[in-house]
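Exercise 7.
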Amino acid sequence: MNLLEKILLIKRHELKATLVSFAFVFVLMAAYYILRPVRDAMASDWTDAEVSLLWTLNFFASAAIVALYGAAVSKIKFQSLVPGVYAFFGLTFLAFYAAINLFDERTLIDKTFYLWVSVFSLFHISVFWSFMSDIYNKQQATRLFGFIASGASAGALLGPSIPALFAGRLGTDTLLLIAALMLMFPVFFTVYLSKLKSTELQNEQVHADLSAARIGGKPFAGFKLFLSNPYLLAIGVFILLYTSISSFIYFEQKNLLAVYDRETRTQILGSLDWAVNILTFIIAIFGTSRLATKFGMPTTLAIVPVFIIGGMLILAAAPIISVILGLQVARRAGNYAITRPGREILFTNVDRETRFKAKPVIDIVVYRGGDMLNAWAFTGLTARLGLGLGAVAVVGAVIASIWAITGVYLGRKFNNLSDVS
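Solution. The predicted structure, written as tokens, is:
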């Protein structure tokens, strides 16, 4: 046990709770990555305009559900709310499985499922980490959250391997049933962790500071802070440009996968998710911290956009499925391991009020709004102007160039603010 404490910094009385927390987030991420390739495989059956409409609905649905969730947090204890959230989502995916097997016409069911998985993706990890802040004290969180977070990486590796290996044998519908049943485990994890909190951890006094996370005062206080601060506006532009690239690559991937049947698409996308998570894990361990500390924030924020410029130009010359899948792996792994951590570092230079009021506006409203606008932009370029995938890739390279410049600007701005403070 002394060796375990030295390597993982886990004390004897914390071991049960830490391992259960690891298993908790492992199951969550595995379930999500089973559902993700099933969702994305559906998109190739629809036109660009249909997917753009779904992304528009996702923007409004996400904003509405975030508001409802915020209201629930203010009235329901987290120990009761969290298992209810996961049980609710598990039951909804079970209902989707039943509906698919009961009705022959499934277009509406598929589109609703596509939308619902996108909504689920906003909540499953956010709720988990809020619950963790209600279980562990600050000193424990500093030592234990790194190990617990590795459970997310492990789940993200296992999850996509299931559709990649078994979608052809089991069918995509059965994958919904597997994920739905997996989401019932967190109900038991939350109950057990709540018990350990008051017994072995002896953290009865610990409560998540949920009031601080709510946008207080006027309803649009966060919007006002965002629009009045050039630094925050630049972060918003950076995210908008990121969503432009991700939307364009997603739509090109969707169109190039249309020639395959749904089971094959699910297997391909499951393999893609697996490759993304392996690469993310390697980069995060060996590259991210070294990149930020040795080369600084301007390079950290610009390196992925620069790589995307080259990838887009290659795609323009060879708009084929292998190129788009390789570019998708590089883009997503680069975002998870480098761009997203770098983006979060930018918020260490703002005050607490800005972090809690304006950050949700940027992370959710700007991000989802960017998805919506860029989906329609891609549809306009292809359906209205008649541009092919190669020409759209050139447009993407131009956008990536602006994205890289914005990253350098933000990195320098961050350094200047750090020097002043």
